[in-house]
């Protein structure tokens, strides 16, 4: 039992490969989940994969007979968001992989979400249809035009009930604005604009205008040989539409204010922790690169994830983080082998719970970590089909570094680095989490009494 989020238990396990019609015959590259995102109410959960597909899960409504089914998520809609393309001018293949999904707040019966691959952002409308019109005058029931001479009477079209159908239609396509790969999209709190960030530039878009965007950050040097850092992530402030942050591969965070200047080349605040000379090594620059940055729901704090740690920064203190949590410090001695197998370049994400009191991030061996900010306690849990049966309580896992290993511990040398939890999401108001492990999506929730 961890104060702040209880004993997390698995409520329902969805094997993502089954959603796509295969029964784990073998994981293809296209089936690997690349992003996970709850909508603003938590009733919907969207996942994107490397095959360019988006799968939306909807939460079951509570029934009097089965109140415990309230937490279960079932497939609501599946659609192909992006297709592979080829840039003939640069002789480059553009992957269909979904890099990010962001929901817009619901304004009517339909849902809207943004999805992006490396180059193109799309705005999708997801709507339900349970009625169909019948009784057209100029068309027959199959949609073919009727001979006007055969029309002898005027009919009033009527709506007839039909089986519920969920339709996903692309409403806007925002393309041709990024030279480099898009790593972030973020919807502004004014809900009229959003931004997309690549390695060197951040663009501001209006939802109604697809053929032009406004460049708000440009760190590209005149001579590319002088390039020393790239943008790794960017996000708007949850309440102030003029404020946003972006992180860099040098481990720094810049807070920008769009009221100061149209082009935010000069930051309003600069967050950087001084390097400890005693920890300096060949890998220092690589592991200090920030892979994710997230504002807290309150807007007071920023959370950043680098390779070994999660840090929480106060917006009013730029010189050092107020909290630092070691995610997998036992890997510090393994950096050389992690560099050789490219794992050191993995980009882990991090998320807040609804009250900003607990933070979660992923690790290797299908482990994910939770840190309670109030009690300073932490837990390591595992998302695996062998250890996680529906309605079973997850047992905390421990990694052993030394020679002697207890029965319930796992040795650091036997960790599987091909199994990694890069993408997680937390329900905006409840203790329900979604964890993507390769091609499987796990949904866990607090124990239901």
From TrEMBL:
SMART domains per record: WD40 (SM00320)
UniProt keyword annotation of Protein transport present: no
Keywords: Repeat, WD repeat
Entry keyword Repeat: yes
GO cellular component: protein phosphatase type 2A complex
InterPro entries: PP2A_PR55, PP2A_PR55_CS, WD40/YVTN_repeat-like_dom_sf, WD40_repeat_dom_sf, WD40_rpt
Family: Belongs to the phosphatase 2A regulatory subunit B family.
Name of this protein: Serine/threonine-protein phosphatase 2A 55 kDa regulatory subunit B
Gene: PPP2R2B
């Amino acid at each position: 039992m961890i104060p702040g989020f209880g004993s997390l238990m698995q409520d329902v396990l969805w094997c993502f490969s089954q959603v796509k019609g295969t029964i784990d015959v073998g994981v293809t590259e296209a089936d690997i989940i690349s992003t996970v995102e709850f909508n603003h109410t938590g009733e919907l959960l969207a996942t994107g994969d490397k095959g360019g597909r988006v799968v939306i899960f909807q939460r079951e409504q509570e029934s009097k007979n089965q109140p415990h089914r309230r937490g279960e998520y079932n497939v609501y809609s599946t659609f192909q968001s992006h297709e592979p393309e080829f840039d003939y001018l640069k002789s480059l293949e553009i992957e269909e992989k979904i890099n990010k999904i962001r929901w817009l707040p619901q304004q009517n019966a339909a849902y809207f979400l943004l999805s992006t691959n490396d180059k193109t952002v799309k705005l999708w409308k997801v709507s339900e249809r349970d009625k169909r019109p019948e009784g057209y005058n100029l068309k027959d029931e199959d949609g073919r035009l009727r001979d006007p001479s055969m029309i002898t009477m005027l009919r009033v079209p009527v709506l007839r009930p039909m089986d519920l159908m969920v339709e996903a239609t692309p409403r806007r396509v925002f393309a041709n604005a990024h030279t480099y790969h898009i790593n972030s999209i973020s919807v502004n709190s004014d809900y009229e604009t959003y931004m997309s960030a690549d390695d060197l530039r951040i663009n501001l878009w209006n939802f109604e205008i697809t053929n032009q965007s406004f460049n708000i950050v440009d760190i590209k040097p005149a001579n590319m040989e002088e390039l020393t850092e790239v943008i790794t992530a960017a996000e708007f402030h949850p309440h102030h539409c003029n404020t946003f942050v972006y992180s860099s591969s040098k481990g720094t965070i810049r807070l920008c204010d769009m009221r100061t200047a149209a082009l935010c080349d000069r930051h309003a605040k600069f967050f950087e922790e001084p390097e400890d000379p005693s920890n300096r090594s060949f890998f220092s620059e690589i592991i200090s690169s920030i892979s994710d940055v997230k504002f807290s729901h309150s807007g007071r704090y920023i959370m950043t994830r680098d390779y070994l740690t999660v840090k929480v920064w106060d917006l009013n203190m730029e010189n050092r983080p107020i909290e630092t949590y070691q995610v997998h410090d036992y890997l510090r001695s393994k950096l050389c082998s992690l560099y050789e197998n490219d794992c050191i370049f993995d980009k882990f994400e991090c998320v807040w719970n609804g009250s900003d009191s607990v933070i979660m991030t992923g690790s290797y061996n299908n482990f994910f970590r939770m840190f309670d900010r109030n009690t300073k306690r932490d837990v390591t849990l595992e998302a695996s089909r062998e250890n996680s049966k529906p309605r079973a309580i997850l047992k905390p896992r421990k990694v052993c570094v030394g020679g002697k290993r207890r029965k319930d511990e796992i040795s650091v040398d036997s960790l599987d680095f091909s199994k990694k939890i890069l993408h997680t999401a937390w329900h905006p108001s409840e203790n329900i989490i979604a964890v993507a492990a390769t091609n499987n999506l796990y949904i866990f929730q607090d124990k239901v009494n």
